[in-house]
Each structure stands twice: as C-alpha cells, then as structure tokens.
Amino acid sequence: MNSEKAITELARSDYYAYTFLCLNEGIDFSKEPPRIKSTKFHKWLCKTVWDFITTETGDPYNMLLLSVPPQHGKSLHITETLPSFFLGRYPEKRVIEASYGQDLAQKFGRANKNKVKKFGYLFGISVSNDAKSAVDWKLSNGIGGMISRGILSGITGRSGDLIIVDDPIKNSEEAGSQKIRDKIWEEWQTSISSRIQAGTKIIVIQTRWHEDDLIGRLKDDPYAIYYNLEAVCESPNDPLGREFGEALCPEIGKDERWLLNFKEALCRGEANEGGESGQRAWEALYQGHPTSKE
Question: Per-residue pLDDT tens for 28-56?
C-alpha cells in the first residue's frame, strides 16, 4: 500500500488525515511534496476539535472557543473542511455555519459541498441532486446537510447538531463599535442559540479583536472550553506544550525570527487600520490578549 492509499484509507476515520487528503488533492506523494505542509499546530487543532465533537458529556450543549492568530490555517482546517467530514461520519445530522459576511459564508458552504462531491465516496454519501445553493444544501438522504449565513443575516429554520462560528467580526472598525458587538450578541442569543438542541456541539473560532468580542462574552459559560493559541508562546500553560518564545506554526515559515521581524514592523507604525496601535494590535490579533484603549 503506497502512502496515498494509506492516507486515503485513514481519512475515513481520522479527521487530520482527511484534511491532509482534501487540502493536497491531486498530489502524487511519491513524486512531489504536499501542497499544505503537516504542522504540529494543525494536528493538535484537528484532534482537539474531533475529540470535542465525539465526547459525550451529558451536558445540554458544549462550546469549544478557539482564539487563533490571522493567516494560520484555522478556516482551512476547520470551517472549510470539518462539516464535510462530520456529515460523512454522521449523515443524518445538520451543520450550521456563521461568519461576518454572507460572501464568506457562501465560500465556506461551497467548499464543503465540493468536498462531499469529491470525497463523499469515502463515507458513501453524496449531495442531493436538488441542492443548487452553496449556502443551504442537503445530502442525497434528504436529512443531513449544511446552512451557511452571515452572522447578521438571520439564521432560521432547522436546528443544528454542529454549529460553527468563524470570525464573527470582520475588522478593527467593527470590533470598536459597541453597536455592532451588541448586534452580534443579540443575533447569538435570539437566532443562533435558538438552533441549539440536546447535545449540540458549538465551535467558535476567531482572531480576537476586542475584549468584548463574542469569545469575550462566551468564555465564562459553564459549558465552554477556551483555548488561546498565541503566535509566540508566552503562557506557562500552552495548549501545545510549547516553551516560552516558540512560534505557533514554524513549519509554514512563520518561525520565531519571522514573527519577531513582523512584530517590529507592526509596532513601528503609529497606528494600523482602524486607529489601533501596533502593539495593541499585536497583543489582540496575534497573542489573543485584547485590551481596551484605556
């Protein structure tokens, strides 16, 4: 059995193997290196998410809150891929995905729909012939499927067995608006929360922009687990077990030297987009420690 066949077989049951297969589609591993490199962080992320989904707790619901720096593959490995694997393993369940805009939500919905079309054979599933939309589609069994929406667009209709919220805030300007933060919270309470049923698993994965963002308001929920993945480890209780100063994703070129140079460049300017100081932006976006301007 060659490596490609081995990965394909493992992808039926192992979520990280599935993401590796999907993200390196068309690569002959015996002749060329993978397009998307294997990293310690992405292995941890995939294992943590799948363990969270498959662990029965007896709680009314469970939330996994993940703070991740920008451009570290969080959406590739979770929002663009997890729903298709979840439906492969549980074809009679339903997924709801929400993000800051309808265009982004459509991108995530289409990505998973295409993965079911290409890799559904691993699980014996397929997309319904009637599924014309990228934001609301079902499997051929007429039961399982996925809905994707902009978080302020309103999520109505079916309940969700898996709910994913990916970057509910678009930028610094939105994060700084009390009105927008309150609107997102209201949508969470009145629309998204009403889709929760017994045993629903909820994943909120985002870059932190503000101490009062969605994760900031949810992390003290009694059914929530919160992980902050710092770009540069400064915590003695790092989820990956890194030493102080270690980078999160050195395998993709963002090692300690790159991050140091990037931080210096970011902090040299007086302010970035939205009027945030470079140091404050670094602490919020890359280290997951947002603080008020005061």
Answer: 766 767 777 789 999 999 999 999 999 99
pLDDT in tens, 87-131: 999 999 999 999 999 899 999 999 999 999 999 999 999 999 886
- Residues 232, 62: Cα–Cα separation, whole Å: 28
Per-residue model confidence (pLDDT) at position 195: 86
Placement of tokens 């007896």 in the chain: 58
> Which of 19, 13, 6 is closest to 76 using CA atoms?
19
For 205, phi then psi, to 5°, come to -125, 125
Torsion angles phi and psi, residue 149, rounded to 5: -145, 150
Tell me the pairing of strands 196-206 and 224-228: unpaired
φ/ψ (deg, to 5) at 264: -60, -40
Q: Sign of the C-alpha dihedral, residues 41, 170, 36, 20?
A: positive
Q: Which helix (H) or strand (E) holds 196?
A: strand 196-206
Q: Are 17 and 7 in contact (CB under 8 A)?
A: yes
The answer to whether residues 88 and 162 touch, using CB atoms and an 8 Å cutoff, is no
The helix or strand, by DSSP H or E, that contains position 64, with its residue range, turns out to be: strand 61-67
- For 166, phi then psi, to 5°, come to -115, 115
Q: Do residues 86 and 162 make contact, with C-beta atoms less than 8 angstroms apart?
A: yes
Reported as a single tens digit per residue, the pLDDT across 119-160 is 999 999 999 988 678 788 999 998 999 999 999 887 776 789
List of residues 6+ apart from 165 with CB closer than 8 A: 97, 98, 99, 151, 192, 202, 203, 204, 205, 206, 214
